[in-house]
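Per your request, structure below.
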């Protein structure tokens, strides 16, 4: 497991969390490098540019910068006993005011809002890929939802 992330201000330590996957960094780098090679080849009318080692520096540096940008923007999820964070957004799971499952988009999302007005929208597919976080969040949500007015789709998703 990756380095433990910092909890939101005033909250307990995280019990489960995700890390940025280094494979994402590699995929972004290689994808942008291949795109750069293709564009250089189109502009040059062939692969003659590839014989010049200095011309490889520009696509390599640009690809590395792009990959770091994409990797740094990958949201990290973390959960404590009574809070959940997705990227920069977080909510108190013991003080939820509103829970809705949005299936209108291509990827289903769970929208959570707490009594302090903090809210986050969580990609359900991404959450499901991390069993510890998924189990921890769903168990907390099932305890919390007893007094909340949930639509049938959200209630079915939570299994409550």
């Amino acid at each position: 497991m990756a380095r433990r992330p910092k909890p939101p201000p005033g909250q307990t330590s995280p019990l489960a969390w995700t890390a940025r996957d280094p494979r994402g960094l590699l995929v972004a780098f290689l994808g942008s490098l291949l795109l750069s090679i293709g564009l250089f080849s189109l502009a040059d009318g062939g692969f003659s540019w590839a014989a010049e080692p200095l011309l490889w520096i520009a696509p390599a540096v640009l690809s590395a910068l792009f990959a770091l940008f994409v990797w740094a923007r990958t949201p990290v999820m973390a959960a404590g006993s009574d809070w959940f964070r997705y990227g920069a957004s977080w909510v108190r799971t013991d003080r939820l005011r509103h829970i809705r499952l949005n299936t209108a988009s291509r990827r289903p999302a769970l929208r959570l809002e707490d009594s302090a007005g903090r809210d986050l929208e969580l990609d359900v597919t991404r959450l499901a890929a991390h069993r510890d976080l998924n189990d921890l969040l769903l168990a907390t949500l099932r305890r919390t939802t007893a007094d909340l007015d949930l639509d049938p789709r959200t209630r079915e998703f939570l299994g409550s």
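The chain is about 40% helix and 20% strand.

Regards,
D.
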